[in-house]
Structures are given as structure tokens and as C-alpha cells.
Amino acid sequence: MPPAALAAALEAAAGPESRYEGADTGALVGIVRQWAAIESWAAAGLLAALRAMTREDGEGSPLLRRRGDLPDGWNDSLNYEIAAALAMGPVSAGNLAGLAWTLGTRLPGTGRLLADGTLTKAKAKLIAATFEPLDEGEAARAEALILPELAGKTYFQVERLAWRAALAVAPDVAERRRSKAERERARVTVFREESGAVGLSGRDLPAAQALSGHASVLARAGEYAASGAFPGQTLSSLQALAYLHLLNGVTAQDAIAFAGAAAAEPPDGTGQEEDAGERSRRETDSGGDAPADTKGHGGDQGTDGDDGADPSGDDSGPGGSHGPGGPEASPSTRPVLPEVTVPLATLQRRAERPGDNRLLGPLDPAMTRDLAAAAAQSPRSRWEVTIVDDRGYAVGHGIARAGRSRRQEPQPPGPASRALPAWVNITVTETLLCQLAAQAAQPRSGAPPGDWEFAPQTIRDGYGTWTLTLPSGRELTVRFDIVPTHACDHRYRVNAYTPSDRLRRLIQVRDHECTFPTCARPARESDFEHAVPYDKGGQTDACNAGARSRRCHRVKQTPGWTLTQPKPGWHQWTTPTGRTYLQEPWRYTA
Questions:
Q1: Are residues 226 and 349 in the same domain?
Q2: Cβ 551 vs Cβ 301: under 8 Å
Q3: Number of domains composing the chain
Q4: Mean pLDDT for the chain?
Q5: Structural domain contains residue 457
């Protein structure tokens, strides 16, 4: 049915006062999806009309040069014409016209997905902005990489796909753009929030220092939560308070002492609220399959950015503020370390593949190497190695533990020598691992190992034990466990409700995030959850386990929801209306 006719049919089905009398939940879900498709179709129609307004020379190109990224630009009069018609500022009008031009000529496939309802306008705009630094050929190749993957993706999943594609076709574009921004645009801004409060933001900052500063804020907030001196405060509000205290030189001891005095218990003992530290510990306790009402609260799902709200909800995007560490750790004991994923091939300059960070998203190869080098300078950094197959699925994992250290000359001053305490996950393909094992079997020249050398010690069972050499000369030992992704041999089964530490870790590595398709809560901060409940015969095994955020865990336990695992790592959710959604294991870049 044509979209206009579909809109008319939906309007008729809505009935008086849009009450949709007689429509059950299943039908209403379908109606919601159709209205969303119509909204995208209408946005595409608006952009098509704007695009037509730029074609005033008979050749489909604008008249006068106004934007460097367009063939000829257009007269500023057109921007004001659009601004007046749509009651928006001239700059916003120009940006909207630019989006119209881009989706019609530069990224036509994205424009078609907007028109057929696959993408929202916000997601199409995000793709256009991410691909803006690319030339015409690079943009076309990047678009071709992501078009088959976009259906059903959230705003942040689209962002991650777009950045990975941009880095795949032009690994150095982001580096050039970032270097210029750090030189010319680094700034601190003060602005009024929609709520009437004030925002304070540092922009275009060096990545290692920004991540280190953010970790300092989380660590201070963890001290505040554990102290119990801030009753009624959420972790987010404690992080904001910690941010201001660090900027203004207020020590943690002074802040806690002052807050404790202000929140002293009334003489009659009434009105005492729950201790903030105790509440945070209760909320972060790891749960299994206990009834939902015995658990704490999970983070909000957030927004996909389509409605203009801040797209940084705890579960839906990279703005979540919790550091690594198991879900059972309290803020005061959880190590506050930024997590960085780095391909070994990128570190060894065998390839230019992107890394990843929860807060920053995909990292271009140069930034990936800089952050890894900065982490190697910190004795607080933690290291692990994940082996992936040809599809990016984790098949092996090991924690890097301290070994011996060789003497090495001090590194020269520069960004790479600034220590960044971080949790670094080095990814390596099975193919490269075999190549390294073969190289190690050849006679050595006697020269010392180079930076980021990865060499086998013993290979007896599975992937064996390896040695990782950091640029500082420090050597770490990695013993690999098999990650149960494609087949479950039950080697890690536990005959009890609570999983072993190893099983929990391997499930977190395999899933990486909560296994509900639109939730991005890190697996380290999610529950280890049985698909078939333990008290109903479900095994504590990789075949029956997955990472679930506390909120998704509780929804899964409500009537009408079912979750099955066709094979280890593949999680099939069925909603109360009978719709099914399949989430595959996480795909790492290596």
C-alpha cells in the first residue's frame, strides 16, 4: 500500500480520539511500526523537496558556492527561504538543505532506506555526518558496507557501524580531523541546560587525558557512594558532584565530612533515608533467577536519539558511566579503568584496523595505538587477550598476568608517554595466531623481542600459553581458555546455581553486552542469567547462560516473555505478542 494510502488507513483504524478500539497489543505494535515508517517517508519527502530547490541551473547542482563539501554550493538566499518557511535559524536551514543534497546524491542508498522506513531521519543524519570527511568514492564504499546491516539497529548501533565503515575505507581521515580539532577547537564551554541548570563541558580534548579524567570522576563518585554521606543521591548525581569538586580542588575527605555533618540523623531518629553506599551495593548485586522484586534497579534503556533527547542512557549507548568490573562489585571496590579494545594487528602495524572504547565508540588506528601505548606506561593497567574467528566471534580468552620485565630506555615525551590506567583487551585472529606460532618455531636471530610481541610459551591444550611484551619491556603471561561460542562441550558446567569465575568471565567475553538486541549495557555490569531458570531445570552452563542487564533481566521474567539459545551465544527473545528477535554473539574487530 502506498504510504499516503497507508496513513489514511491507519487514521481510519484509530477511530474516535485515536483510541484504536478493538486492537490488541500485537496489532498495535504493527500500527506503531507503520506510523514510524510513515514518519520516515514524510521526512524523505521533505528532503526531496528541499533538494529540488537547490537544482536551479538545470543540471541538478546548486548555483553559488557556500559549502566546501558540495559541488557548487548554493546562494544564501535559499537558506533564508527555507528558514522562513520552516521557522528555523538560517544555519539550521542550511544544514537541513545540506542533508537533503547528501542523501540524494552522495549517499543515495541511505536516502532510500529513509524513504522506505528502515531508517529514521536522525539515523540518516548521523550516517551523513560520520561520512562527511570522506571523499565521494570513500563515502560510496563505506555506505555499501553498512547498508545490509542497518535494519533494526538503534541510534548508537548505527553510529558504531558507520564509524567502523569510515575507518575501514579511510583509516587516517579521523586522525587528521582529530589532530586539527585538538589544535584549533579544544575548548571549555558553559551553557544553559533545558532544565534551567548549567552545563560545563570540555570539547575536542586529547583522548587519553579525557578518559583518564573521566575515570578520576568515577573513582571519586565511588568514594562518595561508599561513604554513605550522601543519602538520596543517585550515582549520576554523585559523579556530577565529583566532577565539580575535582575542578575546584575539594578533597574527598572534606566533601564527605561536610556532607556527613549536613545529613546527620535528627534527634528523634526519624526521617533517616537509606544509605547511598548500601543502596548502590544492593543495586549492583549480581542476580541470577531470583524473583524480580528481590533485585535492585537497572539503568534506564535511554533513547536512540531520534527525539532530540540526550542519547546517552545507561543501556543504549556509550555514555553509560560505569567502569569495568563485575556486576557484583560496589562503586568503591570496582576498578575504575577505561576499557579499550585494540587489535594486535594494529599494534604491530600489520594492518590499520580500528579499536573500540565504550565511551568514544570506534577508535581510528592511530588513536588505538596511542591509547594502548599510554596504558602500557601505567602499572595499574590490566591486560587480556581475546582470540576471534573469521567472523569476529570470540573463541578464546585469557587474562594477562605479570611476568618478568626487561630493561628499556625511557620513552621520549609525547602523548604516548602519558600514562593512562586502562583495561585493555587485545584481539587477535586465529589466522594471525597460527602465523605467530609458526614464526616462533623458526630460529631466532638473537635480537630482543620488539614492542607488542606475542609469542607462544607452550601449546598443549587448545590455544596454550603465550607471552605478551609491552613497549615498556614488561612481559605478561596469557593462558587461554576456550570461549564456548559455536558448540557447547559443557567443560565449564557448574552443578550449582552460581557460576564459577571462569564461566562468568567467558560469558561476558562472548556476549560483551547485554543480549537484548537494543540494549548496550556492558556484560561486565550485567547479570549472569539462565535462559531456562535454574529452579526449572536450567543448567549453569554456557549453553544456557547469557549477560542480561538488570532491567532486561526483570523484563524477561515477566509473563509472556521467553528466551531460548538455539546454540551457545545466540539468544532468541520472544515477546508477549509473538515477535522474535535474535541476538548473535559480539563481533570483535581484530
A1: no
A2: yes
A3: 4
A4: 82
A5: yes
Lookup result for grid cell 589532530: 179
| Chain centroid offset of residue 365 CA | 18
22 located within any domain = yes
Contacts (Cβ under 8 Å, ≥6 apart) of 490: 541, 542, 543
Judge if 451 and 543 occupy the same domain: no
| Distance of alpha carbon 509 from alpha carbon 519, whole angstroms | 16
Same domain, 23 and 101: yes
All three cell numbers of 412, joined, read: 621520549
d(CA 514, CA 507): 11
Sign of the Cα torsion 504, 509, 510, 513 reads positive
Shared domain check, 524 and 577: yes
Same domain, 424 and 279: no
**Final residue belonging to a domain, choices 482, 498, 523:** 482
**Identity of residue 274:** E
Give the Cα separation of 122 and 169 in Å (integer). Answer: 23
**Do 344 and 478 have their domain in common?**
yes
Considering the entire predicted model, what is its pTM?
0.74
> Which of the residue ranges 69-83, 91-105, 360-374, 463-477 would you say has the lowest mean pLDDT?
69-83
Residue partners of 133: CB distance under 8 A and separation at least 6: 166, 170, 173, 174, 176, 177
Q: In what order do the strands lie in the sheet with 580-583?
A: 562-567, 570-574, 580-583
Residue 79's domain comprises 3-170
d(C-alpha 176, C-alpha 186), whole Å: 15
- Dihedral sign of CA atoms 276, 278, 279, 281 in order: positive
**Cα–Cα distance, 453 to 449 (Å, whole number):** 6
C-beta neighbour count of 249 within 10 angstroms: 7
C-alpha cell at 538: 536450567
User: How far apart, in whole angstroms, are the C-alpha atoms of residue 125 and residue 475?
Assistant: 46
Predicted confidence (pLDDT) per residue in 529-560, tens digit: 999 999 999 999 999 999 999 999 999 999 99
Phi, psi torsion values for 388, nearest 5 degrees? -125, 155
Residue 192 placed within a domain = no
Give the CA diameter of the chain: 85
Asked if 482 and 493 touch (Cβ cutoff 8 Å), the reply is no
- What is the phi/psi pair of residue 426, to 5°? -90, 125
214 and 166 in a common domain: no
Let me know whether 356 and 436 are in one domain.
yes
Does residue 504 lie within any of the structural domains? Answer: no
Nearest Cα to Cα of residue 241 among 250, 359, 300, 312: 250
Which cell numbers in the block locate residue 57? 541551473
The owner of cell 519527502 is 45
pLDDT digits (tens, 9 = 90+) for 46-90: 999 998 887 654 554 544 444 444 545 566 777 778 888 899 888
- Record the cell numbers describing residue 554, joined without a space: 526483570
Q: How far is CA 317 from CA 222, 312, 337, in A?
A: 21, 5, 18
Q: Which of 463, 482, 501 is the last residue of a domain?
A: 482
Is the CB of residue 392 less than 8 Å from the CB of residue 433?
Answer: no
